[in-house]
Structure formats: C-alpha cells, structure tokens
What we know:
Elements: E1 2-8, H1 25-35, E2 39-44, E3 55-61, H2 82-88, E4 91-99, H3 101-114, E5 118-127, H4 131-141
Parallel strand pairs: 1-2, 1-4, 2-3, 4-5
Helix pairs in contact: 3-4
Amino acid sequence: MSRGLIVVDVQNAFCEGGSVPLSGGARIATKIADLWSGSAVSSTRTSRPPSPGGRVDAVFFKGAHSSSESGFEGADEQGMALADWLRARGVEHVDVVGIATDHFVRATALDAVKAGFRAHVRLDYSVGVAPDTINSTLNDFR
C-alpha cells in the first residue's frame, strides 16, 4: 500500500505575525519541516508554499474561484484534482497534517475518506483554532 503526505495550509499567514495568525502555527510549521523528509503534496489557498524539508511533488490550489476548505476541492497548475493525482501514483493511504485541524485539515481528511483513501490525521503535526471546534472535529474523526 502506497502512502502519501498531505500538508494543508502551512503558510506564513497562519503563523504568529501573519495576517490570520494561529497560536502554535509557527511551532507546527517547524515540526512539519522536521517530519517532511520525503515527498509530499501541499494544499493551499494562496501562492506556492515554501518547502522547508523534503520536496513538494505537487501543490493543489483551493478556493481560487469559490470558498473551499478541502485540498480535494483544488487542482494543481495543470488542472488535475488531488484525488486523481494520488490515484495515478498508486497512493491508497494519506497522512494529513497542517493548519487548522478543525477546518482545513478536517475537511481534507474527511474528503480523503469520501474519495476512497485511508486517512490518518497526525494531530501532533496539526494545530487548531479553538478548543470547542477541535473537540467536535475529533468526534468527526471517530
């Protein structure tokens, strides 16, 4: 079974000092950089994110034409959807990490399952917005 890493919305805007800062965003970005030794795909709302560790195999832009939280609602620069890209590479299981656990990470993980992938959210490599929505998200994952 081939495994992939999806890095969701790790960008300066969500780190302390950014335009929409999350407490712990910079810490998680650093942890992900340490984890990210192989290859990964990244899902983002804005421009290409930095690749602090391993290589980024593809970037999937979401929210370009409508509000979206899931990386599975985006496409790469050639217009390929994330699910199609993963299937073309034989990926069956994805680890999902990033910012924010209770929004973008949640939506991406749940859509991964809907698309037929086994998904594992690495909570130790994710940060959320608020305790109540994080708890609700954890219930959704069960």
